[in-house]
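TOKENISE THE FOLD
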Amino acid sequence: MHNAPNTSIGELNDLAIGFLAKGDVGKSLKILEQSLERSRNESGVDHSDTLTIMNSLAGALCLIGDTEGARNLLVTVSKTLDRKLGADDHQALRARSNLAGVMRALGDLPSAHNLLQEILSSQLDTLGPEHPDTLRTLGSIGEVLHARGEFFDARRVLESVLLTQNRILGMEHGDRLASMNNLSLVLLEHGEADEAYSLLVDVLEVQLHRLGIENPETVRSANNISTILTAKGDSKKTLRVLTGILQKQSDSWGKKHPQTTETAWIFALQLKQAGDALTLNALKVGFLDWLFCASNSSLSDRQIAIRGLLPLLSTKEKNVGRNSPCPCKSGAKFKFCCGNLS
């Protein structure tokens, strides 16, 4: 129904982005995949509509963890735009920036850093140092530096970006909020949990007002706040904040919605790692134990998987280390998988 012939590709893309903003990745993916097939057939693989849909689809694939699929799409988009518009065109630069983000997610930090430096050089020449796109690229470089363990340089870059964004973008701009989120993680690594927490409280307040609790960026901030509180060791405050976040999701989606379960699972793993058995038990009773009584037909595949992993939350089990294999058996380290702060 969404992909009716009289609906333009642009309208379908906007519709899919709207579902992404509400956290409904499955519905967004279905619209984007159908739209991509239609646009390729009607307009060709090099048409701007086709490239726009491919770019949006790559973003959706990243949200479900298919970073390799996203990389393949973005390589095609980037090469096509470079050929059609020139490597210094702002659309081509944005496509390559998105590709660099996927490279970082895949762990190819040298390639991501080199690509971002190329993009930054072009943007400084064509857009100037204070253009939002230039600042976004600098922020991405800060994220790569953080991932490489270069915390001092990452903090310097992100603080400089945030200072400029505060001046030219306004306090509620999405780019500014993203920079605050990224800087908070660097501050946490530096042992400055109080400063990190203060930043994220401001971010979450704006996101809850502008985006709603179901938006992926809001969920990300909520997850990061839970990590910081867990690191601070304040059990009562942690429980109060986590319960508040999960209650907002329950009010929006219901306690048994897959995204509510996923958020509760992420929180639970962080509490397990910190050894906070009291808060963990309260969270488990409130938001996860119902899975044991649910039928498979009423659960998503991910919820079934989480139910099978719940025994790992037993306080008799050894805590999951940040560098240990993730208990979900993905093969990745815990810090890059279910314990991933970002």
In short: The chain has a mean pLDDT of 84. The CA atoms of residues 151 and 193 lie 15 Å apart. The radius of gyration is 21 Å. The chain has 15 helices and no strands.
